[in-house]
């Protein structure tokens, strides 16, 4: 498929393409020098791809009109206006301050308490919040064994979306509101042989750093019922039930699915240009089902070249069957993530090369990298950052993988970033939970924290991203990032580097686009890493990679408190809904699966919730600074455990007071606006010769309020 | 020092070579030959200050962009300071000049600020003491304020090296007579102009009137009186000339044991309960003397303990609390963590940072001080008890705890003037032995004299730095206090319960920043006071970030609001021209360093700081680390 011949009418500007000298490459792919007739070291699949490619594009074209980036239907949007924007005073979650002592402090909770603001309705008869589409399954009298306040008698309500517990004791206002999606594991504790309150117990392990324990009555098989119902609705996949996101009928006045439009995002970066083109080679995910449909690749590489390169950039156990292309390529090509607006160096991403023990080479891949190197017209080498520790990269050769060797890639420099694999990260987070839940490790907090290695991993990820960003920002060279498969550590590094380089991604919508692009569309395997609706809690594929990324973002926002438009609540909300299954945003492993399931049509986007209520997620100190590169300091001296996330369930540790500096600032902002208004009024008044301006409300002396909590 | 041996040896497993290759050679030193032409920088001497010795062509090393650079200049030693003359300070822009210390320049080290002097001989660093046989090629000075200076002497004339090195060693290490301290010659030479704004001055507590004023302010005058029995230090030299005792205490009791065994008033709570301190009576062996002491104390106690009206709780800080030795030991370990010689050392220690921090016990000591102060606040506030702090001389831990309690309970102490007055009242008049604790006279260098007692206090609260400590921003302390912290230590259950309830209930309510403030003492939000301890470390500075970023936004907004307010008033009162805008404090400094105002004078670029060593063996997780990311196909979706 020749570049630029795509059927995306009006999809991107024609201008740069017209001027492009590249027709030379059209149809011929790489310049002839690029196509040595020598045999490749890698088995190439047979070549019927042209036809396939064409078909793909044709279909893609058909889809383009109503395709995945189109908004949801207008009717739905219109009707959502009515319910979603509940006016209501901006009263604060702190209105419930007395209860919050016992409360679980999830944002989930807070948003629900604010009733219909988020489209949540209350079941009046039961006083249980319900989302449209949420149905009640059962309720039971239980004893909630609170690790902080002891046993509390309550009634638990289970719907197809949540577990909701209300205290039945007069002196406790406890409310638990837990989406079933956060449940990782349900276990029975005790039994007929044990005695006391725990005799018939359930222990629920959650993905968000807590456990819930209930004791039930022996009579009427209440534990068995609750166990079975919870298992059924928390793990719908095992019971052929839909994930709640498909049942959710919430309406919002903003459609989050329209936030990310890849064509627009690339256009924002000035792409396509002389050196980079947009390709639809993967339109139907036939070449790589974990890559998005739309990719940006070097102008000088034809789609045929891409196909050849693909075979070398993948995972070792790919069944090279007789079919056109292997089914499960990881991230086969270096595709562009970001281009520097001035020096035109780029960040590209892919998976490891299939070098293997024998040190296989692939001329196409080598040439392809060279093409990338040259796109910014620099003579310097291409910098390759392999996210793995050196030893692991070497070890991966045994299973067919490996890294770019010096002798094969003369014009590239390789650096290892020493970031560990998903298993290490999972164990590390487990250790964090051990020292913070339910009780915070007291006697040796700092050394315990150190022994979890969590912050050390954060440090390495940030350090890697800083190096990527620095290379590109200084214009030294373009950067290629990969790990093993190119969807975990690679996503962390590219997205963090982009956050450092491009201030656009530090706005609320920009960050949503970043997540949507580098994570969701480039195939971070959310379904496998999180295990949505899946009962296999011990699955080795689960790993808190995305959480680690958000933690890094939090560390950055902590170091640069004025550089991000969003606040901590925004990040916590994203993490809460990473598990909740209320929105379709994080479901499935890749774009192709999402498209197959029609996720954008059948579910609501998390960004709809956030963007229809942006004020709640805004950082008042935000100062927009274009072109400012942020380099956090990746030193243990500055990294801290994110207490408000990891230890938020502990009422003693929770920082209940809003940050006083922030509060003060918000007050001053309001005061300033009021003064400006008064000044305008005064100017009007004096020009109209109206006497006595002192009638305007509240003199300045009264207006300097003492700092008071009003959140 | 934190040897390089600390690092990497942990797991015992073979430590693989770090694979990160820096493209900036960290130890590269550019001694630009062109710069050898020394700039003529004049030495600023204070009135009464004398130049003692000097050396030319000294190379001062500057850490910059992870490589070292040298600047040639003159190193001088006066009877007040060591100074390096070479940096061209006129290059500072206005903002920077504004925050420059007018007395002590960037390259000045006062003699009393010198903590330790090292010499480098053949690449080896050795502490320098007394007479030297061999003179070093490099001089490293660690300061008490945690600055580290490196002076290269390789290009300096041998004669001058001898003179300057032995001069510096002598003047910073030899014992001194009190009257030889520089401040006396300074005071004699300088004009004494103490123009105090009566409204805004620090209460010195050197007159009866000051104490009466404080009694009145806290409404303590109902039960307590200021006495002048020690006027001219007739009774006791330790005690101030004027102080406050219970109203019913006969003045002659003060004379009985030279001021020992007397409850001395510190502060009164709004409910009438008082915080008092008492120095212990001399230890006696024979029963007769003990009997006398006991009956004396019984009488004394009746003045503050009259159940059911008044109950006193005694807090013996000498036996039930931290020892001064603990504090000293912890601090000397702790400060070493910040006296960093170079970038390599910074990153080598970074990996083990948390355990190094924990080993110093410093943060734990801070937490225990805060906790003790909260316990006392609870007694005063919730249990309506008087609290009597007892200590051998009532001049160390008493000062610390009593001033902490007041900062928590009395909003006045959180204003700049109030805080200065508090230091004056509790520490200066309270007889804290600064001369000994800071070893200003260098009596016995290696003895347990030096104790950094006032440091827990300053670490426990905000530092009154320049324009930052305004009355309006006193709520900041809460925030700052909230950052120190941690778990509880064992003590009696009942006490624990009262304390717990008081503490939890306070934290569950909205904060009144003009009332009682309790720091978080639980929770792993335990942090180093970065602005003090990291301020000179270039690797640790976040350009355009840190708490300063929000603070300066707040100040800017405050100024804007004030300006608008003025404009509105102007409109009200006259139709005249608007007043010219005053100079803004931070107008053009949108990108301050996180270490502001300290790091401001250090040149910095926008290059990121990159860790030079990051890899550490994972130990028990090694098998996991070797696994591949995954084995399962993704074909299941």
Explain briefly what this protein structure is.
Helices cover 35% and strands 12% of the residues of chain A. Chain A has helices at 15-19, 49-66, 74-84, 97-100, 107-113, 222-234, 262-268, 303-310, 363-374, 390-397, 422-436, 445-452, 454-473, 489-501, 508-521, 526-530, 545-559, 568-580, 591-596, 599-602, 606-611, 643-646, 660-687, 700-703, and strands at residues 121-123, 128-130, 136-146, 150-159, 162-167, 175-179, 183-189, 201-206, 211-215, 276-279, 295-298, 335-339, 346-350, 382-386, 412-416, 479-482. The N and C termini of chain B lie far apart (57 Å).
Class by alpha and beta content of chain A = alpha+beta
Instruction: Summarize the main sheet of chain B.
Output: 9 strands, mixed
Q: State the helix count of chain B.
A: 19
What's the total number of strands of chain A? Answer: 16
First-residue to last-residue Cα separation of chain A: 57 Å
Specify which chain pair forms the largest interface: A-B, 114 and 97 residues
- Overall 3D shape of chain B: globular
Helix content of chain A: 25-40%
The whole-number mean of residue pLDDT values of chain A reads 79
- How many H/I helices of chain A? 24
Class of secondary structure makeup of chain B: alpha+beta
Family (chain B): Belongs to the protein-tyrosine phosphatase family. Non-receptor class myotubularin subfamily.
InterPro entries (chain B): MTMR12-like_C (IPR022587), Myotubularin (IPR030564), Myotubularin-like_Pase_dom (IPR010569), PH-like_dom_sf (IPR011993), Prot-tyrosine_phosphatase-like (IPR029021)
Pfam families (chain B): 3-PAP (PF12578)
Keywords (chain B): Coiled coil, Cytoplasm, Sarcoplasmic reticulum
């Amino acid at each position: 498929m020749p570049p630029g011949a795509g059927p995306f009418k009006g999809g991107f500007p024609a201008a740069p393409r017209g001027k492009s000298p590249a027709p030379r490459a059209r149809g011929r792919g790489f310049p002839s020098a690029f196509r040595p007739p020598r045999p490749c070291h890698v088995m190439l699949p047979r070549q019927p791809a042209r036809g396939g490619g064409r078909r793909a594009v044709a279909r893609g074209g058909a889809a383009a009109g109503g395709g995945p980036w189109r908004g949801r239907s207008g009717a739905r949007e219109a009707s959502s206006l009515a319910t979603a924007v509940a006016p209501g005073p901006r009263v604060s979650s702190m209105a419930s301050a007395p209860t919050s002592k016992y409360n679980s402090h999830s944002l989930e909770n807070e948003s629900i308490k604010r009733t219909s603001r988020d489209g949540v309705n209350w079941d009046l008869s039961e006083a249980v919040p319900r989302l449209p589409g949420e149905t009640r399954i059962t309720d039971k009298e239980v004893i909630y064994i609170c690790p902080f306040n002891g046993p509390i008698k309550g009634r638990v309500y289970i719907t197809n979306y949540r577990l909701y517990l209300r205290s039945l004791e007069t002196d406790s206002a406890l409310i638990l509101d837990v989406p079933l999606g956060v449940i990782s594991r349900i276990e029975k504790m005790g039994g007929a042989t044990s005695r006391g309150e725990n005799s018939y117990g359930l222990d629920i392990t959650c993905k968000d750093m807590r456990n819930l324990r209930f004791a039930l009555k022996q009579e009427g098989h209440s534990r068995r019922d609750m166990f079975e119902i919870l298992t059924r609705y928390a793990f719908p996949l095992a019971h052929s039930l839909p994930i709640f996101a498909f049942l959710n009928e919430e309406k919002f006045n903003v459609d989050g699915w329209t936030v990310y439009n890849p064509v627009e995002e690339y256009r924002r970066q000035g792409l396509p240009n002389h050196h980079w083109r947009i390709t639809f080679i993967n339109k139907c995910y036939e070449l790589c089902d974990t890559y998005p449909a739309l990719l940006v690749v070097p102008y000088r590489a034809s789609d045929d070249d891409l196909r050849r390169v693909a075979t070398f950039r993948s995972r070792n156990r790919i069944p090279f069957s007789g079919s056109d292309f292997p089914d499960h390529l990881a991230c086969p090509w270096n595709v562009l993530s970001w281009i520097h607006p001035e020096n035109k160096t780029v960040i590209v991403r892919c998976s490891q090369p299939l070098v293997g023990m024998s040190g296989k080479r692939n001329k196409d891949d080598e040439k392809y990298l060279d093409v990338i190197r040259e796109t910014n017209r620099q003579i310097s080498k291409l910098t390759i950052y392999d996210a793995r520790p050196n030893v692991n990269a070497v070890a991966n050769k045994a299973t067919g993988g490996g890294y770019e060797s010096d002798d094969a890639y003369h014009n590239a420099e390789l650096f290892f970033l020493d970031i560990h694999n998903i298993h290490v990260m999972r164990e590390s987070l487990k250790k964090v939970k051990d020292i913070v839940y339910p009780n915070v490790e007291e006697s040796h907090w700092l050394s315990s924290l150190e022994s979890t290695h969590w912050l050390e991993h954060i440090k390495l990820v940030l350090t890697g991203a800083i190096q990527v960003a620095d290379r590109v920002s200084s214009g030294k060279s373009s950067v290629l990032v990969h790990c093993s498969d190119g969807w975990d550590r690679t996503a962390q590094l590219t997205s963090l580097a982009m956050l450092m380089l491009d201030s656009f991604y530090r706005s609320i919508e920009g960050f949503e686009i970043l997540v949507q692009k580098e994570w969701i569309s480039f195939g971070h395997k959310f379904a496998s890493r999180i295990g949505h609706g899946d009962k296999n809690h011990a699955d080795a594929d689960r790993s808190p990679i995305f959480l680690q990324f958000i933690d890094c973002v939090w560390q950055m926002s902590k170091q640069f408190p004025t550089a991000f438009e969003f606040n901590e609540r925004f990040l916590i909300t994203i993490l809460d809904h990473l598990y909740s299954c209320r929105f379709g945003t994080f479901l499935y492993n890749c774009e192709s699966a999402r498209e197959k399931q029609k996720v954008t049509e059948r579910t609501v986007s998390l960004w709809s919730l956030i963007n229809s209520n942006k004020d709640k997620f805004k950082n008042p100190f935000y100062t927009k600074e274009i072109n400012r590169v942020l380099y956090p300091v990746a030193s243990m001296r500055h990294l801290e455990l994110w207490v408000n996330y990891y230890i938020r369930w502990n009422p003693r540790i929770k920082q209940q007071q809003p940050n006083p500096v922030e509060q003060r600032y918000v007050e001053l902002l309001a005061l300033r606006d009021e003064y400006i208004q008064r000044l305008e009024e005064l100017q009007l008044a004096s020009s109209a010769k109206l006497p006595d301006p002192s009638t305007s409300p509240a003199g300045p002396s009264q207006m300097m309020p003492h700092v008071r909590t009003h959140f | 020092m934190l040897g390089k041996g600390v690092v990497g040896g942990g797991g015992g497993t073979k430590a693989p070579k770090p694979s990160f290759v820096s493209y900036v050679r960290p130890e590269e030193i550019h001694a630009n030959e062109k710069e050898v032409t020394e700039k003529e920088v004049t030495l600023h001497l204070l009135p009464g200050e004398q130049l003692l010795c000097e050396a030319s062509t000294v190379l001062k090393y500057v850490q910059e962009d992870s490589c070292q650079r040298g600047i040639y200049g003159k190193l001088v030693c006066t009877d007040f300071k060591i100074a390096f003359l070479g940096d061209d300070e006129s290059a500072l822009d206005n903002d920077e000049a504004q925050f420059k210390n007018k007395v002590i320049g960037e390259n000045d080290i006062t003699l009393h600020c010198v903590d330790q002097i090292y010499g480098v001989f053949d690449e080896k660093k050795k502490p320098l003491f007394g007479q030297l046989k061999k003179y070093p090629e490099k001089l490293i000075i660690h300061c008490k304020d945690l600055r580290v200076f490196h002076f290269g002497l390789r290009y300096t004339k041998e004669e001058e090296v001898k003179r300057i090195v032995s001069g510096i060693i002598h003047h910073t290490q030899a014992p001194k007579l009190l009257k030889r301290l520089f401040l006396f010659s300074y005071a004699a030479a300088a004009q004494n102009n103490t123009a105090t704004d009566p409204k805004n001055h620090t209460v010195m507590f050197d007159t009866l009137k000051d104490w009466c004023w404080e009694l009145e302010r806290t409404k303590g005058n109902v039960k307590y009186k200021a006495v002048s029995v020690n006027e001219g230090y007739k009774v006791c030299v330790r005690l101030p000339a004027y102080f406050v005792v219970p109203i019913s205490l006969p003045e002659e009791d003060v004379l009985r044991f030279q001021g020992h065994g007397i409850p001395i008033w510190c502060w009164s709570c709004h409910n009438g309960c008082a915080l008092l301190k008492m120095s212990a009576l001399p230890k006696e062996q024979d029963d007769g003397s003990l009997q006398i002491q006991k009956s004396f104390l019984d009488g004394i106690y009746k003045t503050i303990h009259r159940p059911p009206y008044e109950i006193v709780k005694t807090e013996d800080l000498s036996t039930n609390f931290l020892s001064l030795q603990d504090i000293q030991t912890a601090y000397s370990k702790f400060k070493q963590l910040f006296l960093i010689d170079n970038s390599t050392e910074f990153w080598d220690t970074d990996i083990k940072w948390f355990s190094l921090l924990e080993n110093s016990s410093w943060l734990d000591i801070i937490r225990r001080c805060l906790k003790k102060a909260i316990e006392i606040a609870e007694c005063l506030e919730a249990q309506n008890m008087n609290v009597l702090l007892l200590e051998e001389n009532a001049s160390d831990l008493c000062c610390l705890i009593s001033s902490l309690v007041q900062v928590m309970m009395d909003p006045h102490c959180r204003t700049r003037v109030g805080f200065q007055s508090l230091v004056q009242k509790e520490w200066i008049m309270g007889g804290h032995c600064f001369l000994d604790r800071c070893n200003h006279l260098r009596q016995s260098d290696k003895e347990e004299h030096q104790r950094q007692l006032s440091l827990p206090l300053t670490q426990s609260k905000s530092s009154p730095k320049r324009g930052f400590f305004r009355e309006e921003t006193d709520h900041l302390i809460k925030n700052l206090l909230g950052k120190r912290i941690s778990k509880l230590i064992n003590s009696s259950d009942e006490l624990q319960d009262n304390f717990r309830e008081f503490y939890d209930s306070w934290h569950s309510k909205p904060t009144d920043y003009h009332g009682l403030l309790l720091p978080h003492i639980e929770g792993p939000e335990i942090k180093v006071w970065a602005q003090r301890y990291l301020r000179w470390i270039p690797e640790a500075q976040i350009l355009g970030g840190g708490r300063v970023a929000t603070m300066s936004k707040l100040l800017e907004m405050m100024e804007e609001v004030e300006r608008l307010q003025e404009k509105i008033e102007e409109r009200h009162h006259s139709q005249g021209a608007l007043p010219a805008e005053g100079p803004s404090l931070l107008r053009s400094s949108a990108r301050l360093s996180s270490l502001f105002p300290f790091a401001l004078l250090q040149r910095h670029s926008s290059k990121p700081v990159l860790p030079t060593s990051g890899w550490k063996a994972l130990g028990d997780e090694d098998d996991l680390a070797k696994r591949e990311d995954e084995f399962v196909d993704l074909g299941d979706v």
